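User: I'll paste a sequence; please echo it back and then give the predicted structure.

Assistant: Echoing your sequence first, then the prediction.
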Amino acid sequence: MSPPAINFPTSGLTANVTTYVFNGRTWLWTGYAWKLQTVVAGYTGSLGYSGSQGYTGSIGYTGSVGFVGSVGYTGSIGYTGSVGVGYGGSRGFDGSVGFTGSLGYTGSKGNPGNDGSQGPTGYTGSIGATTAYVFDGGDPTSNYSGGPAFDCGGIT
């Protein structure tokens, strides 16, 4: 592949003034030919000193407050949309009855309970029949017989 052709201008040329740039390189018209300019770089100089800080300018004035615009109008309320109509689904089926579980184990015997409290006192029964004896006032081997109530009077 051949290098690209350079199409130098042919009119309005001034010697040692007219330049042409092509592909990053600068060419100078010498009055009879185009000469490629070479860049000769010198050493980099030292860094110059930093200048002093400039003065702070005065504060500018505060402008006047602008006017408050009028309140815009309130827009109209939009319409209420129609109510959606849905259908009620059918009732689901009843599930089957689950199985009966196995019988649990019998627990251990519990501790004996405390003695119960004493019951209430029973009622007093009625008085039985009374038999009168006759006392003859004798000694302890005396005989007693049924009869009217005995007389505790003196011995005769």
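Residues 8-39 form one domain. The mean pLDDT is 81.
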